[in-house]
Amino acid sequence: MFEAAELGRTLDKDTYKEMVPALRTGLLNLQQGLRECDFPVILLISGADGAGKSETVNLLHQWMDPRWIETTAFDEPSDEERERPAFWRFWRALPPKGRIGVLFGSWYSHPIAERVADRVDDDGLDVMLKRINTFEKMLVDGGALLIKLWFHLGKEMQVERIRKLRKNPKTRWRVGERDLAALKSYDRFRAVAEQTLRLTSTGEAPWMIIEGFDERHRNVTTASHILEVVRRRMELDPKTLRGTTTAWKTPREDEKTILDFLDLDLSLDKKSYRKQLADYQGRLNVLARKARERKVSTIVVLEGWDAAGKGGIIRRITRAIDARSYRVIPVAAPTDEERAHHYLWRFWRHIPRAGRFTIYDRSWYGRVLVERVEGYAADDEWIRAYREINEFEEELTDHGIVLLKFWVHIDKDEQLLRFRAREETSFKQHKITEEDYRNREKWDDYAHAVNDMVERTSTEFAPWNLIEGNDKRWARVCALQVLCERLEQAL
């Protein structure tokens, strides 16, 4: 795979000088045109030490407008990063639409290093690379242009590079223990790198191998490749980039959903409610403190009809937890900044640190609920989201996060009673809008969307909990009971 990048090709100085102005102009014009485009460019920089990665990134910043390109360098993860799933720090660094983001030392560094050091075997590496392929497909399906550059330097060229640097007193400092160690393990590193590139060079995100021996040749090759790939993408019709989807069966109007089988007559009297509420809140307080000590994070997702009582459940949960240990994230329509990223980006930002709680008042399921029903997402987007959400949640739970998902269900008559009660209560009037009434007209559409959501995203690692909510006291105690039981299992 690397043989073609070991030919030692060079570019003479005069030819290089002639080519540079056109390349720089092309890159600057490309950036200006990209600002009007509806996709981001993610440029991955990986490869062998000494192959010119740093120098090339510095050159791109010199040749391009620094306002529309940003580089994020990844080294060993910080304590904050270790306390979250591995891809959390990469999601935070993704560029918005219309910009170029350079990721230096990306999600490939850790798997390669682990395999070279024999901390994982080939099967372990395959698992890591499959997750990378899944992640990259999600980004590309979401519209991103992913350019992956691998900078290669042959072993003899590595030896020659180190010899020259050590010979010159002015450059001797550039050769450290890390360089010498990398040279000793070069053959091992090369074998793992070839395996990695072979398994992750996909149709959506192929690798481009850059010969790193000659600086001028390397610079021209890199700039030309970026220009070619981005220009080709800018000329494409966005419709041709959408991922494939399977046909979707439209439900009949009279077709029952899973919600029709919930017993909405379940209730609790005040005395039983107060006793059980106190008991479960006491248990939750103890469990939350244990979770903090053992660094077990918890995510609670609350979905349900308008006026179903989600806010009341949240208040009963948070009363039992130290205010320093939780955050409540109310999810509304995405902001302009959030629209400029993949739809999951804004949820990744709020993943809790170890031992903390994050409660989402509505969540990423908006893609398969409101965005589906109201037509804000194209059919291929919301159909694809079931798979993407399952992959997202599996990554959370694999990291050890306790993930609970609640759908709070009420019937149409109870909802109408609550709407009118809100209108008559001064401190609740802000909670009722014309949109709430308008959504009632699409009740059946939403019910079928909920049915599909539960059917396709209630997994072994993140099952849905359907709560009968006509009686608020029953719903609150039920949610607290499930939360306590799941935490006890996890702890």
TrEMBL record:
Segments forming domain Polyphosphate kinase-2-related: 11-232, 268-489
Q: Which UniProt keywords apply?
A: Transferase
Q: Which residues form the signal peptide?
A: none
Q: Name one GO biological process term.
A: polyphosphate metabolic process
**What GO molecular functions are on record for this protein?**
polyphosphate:AMP phosphotransferase activity
Reply yes or no: does the keyword Phosphoprotein apply.
no
The keyword Disulfide bond appears for this protein:
no
Q: This protein is called what?
A: UDP-galactose-lipid carrier transferase
UniProt source species: Thioalkalivibrio nitratireducens (strain DSM 14787 / UNIQEM 213 / ALEN2)
